[in-house]
Amino acid sequence: MTNEPDDIRDWWQTSIIDMAPGKIAFRGRPIEDLIGTVSFPQMIWLMTRGDLPSPAQAKLLEAALVAGVDHGPQAPSIAAARMAATCGVGLNNVMATGVNMLGDIHGGAGEQCAELYMLIAGRLDASTALDAAIEAELSAWRAAHGKIIPGFGHRFHKPTDPRAPRLMALVREAAQDGIVTGRYAQIAEALQARIGADRGAPIAMNIDGATAVIFCELGFPPPLSRGLFCLSRSVGILAHGWEQMQQGGRNKGPMPPDYLPRYTPSKPDES
């Protein structure tokens, strides 16, 4: 394995895994030393970050992963997975169908929310007061993206998403124990209050907003917020896909066959 030309061996380069016949090591740690000694959240951290988290850090990451696993068949990712399960494809295809539904609007808002938190944090680093930092970045965000702020608001859970307060409580506990700083929790809660004040009614911090707090507190870059949510929601997609396979059904569409979409004819050409 060591005699190949460098242009072949250098085709792919990775610091993640060192694999050869009889050898598997992740980030320099033999697989046999990891099996049975690290948790799955710790392994996720090791693979994406290069080191092992403390048990307390892994516990906080795990809480975020647990919170996002599922939101029922009305969630597009779950609905798509269940429909795919009735189309004769394998479970891996079912899971891929669901994961591929996770985009900027559904499932990917955590990345955008983490970016916003970090922009506000950057202003705080420049000695801007929290209220002024939020005002500046909120105005800039709305000017660039519109009135909807990622991480806040929910079509079902009003004015509270039951997942968020629990996650935020865990962040505050971790901050008290010195595991995280708590600065992103402070930013998120102040941002939530400001959005609510602007609209004249309380607004929920949703799962994207709450998990983005945890991912930022733990030092994950914003794009990984989306990837980590995909890992989390994959559990629900797997469970729903498998359940649908057990229930049966063939070629189920998005609504029962007795109901058809409303036909709306196009306007006549007025030219």
Automatic annotation (TrEMBL):
Q: Does the keyword Lyase apply?
A: yes
Report residue spans for region: Disordered: 246-271
- One Pfam entry for this protein is Citrate_synt
Write down any Gene Ontology CC term: cytosol
Tell me one GO biological process term: carbohydrate metabolic process
Q: Which InterPro entries does UniProt cross-reference here? A: Citrate_synthase
Keywords, comma-separated and alphabetical: Lyase, Transferase
The Enzyme Commission number assigned here is 4.1.3.34
GO terms for molecular function, please?
acyltransferase activity, acyl groups converted into alkyl on transfer; citryl-CoA lyase activity
Q: Which PANTHER family has this protein been placed in?
A: CITRATE SYNTHASE, CITRATE SYNTHASE, PEROXISOMAL
Write out the similarity annotation: Belongs to the citrate synthase family.
NCBIfam families according to UniProt:
PRK06224.1-1
Protein known as: Citryl-CoA lyase
UniProt organism field? Gymnodinialimonas ceratoperidinii
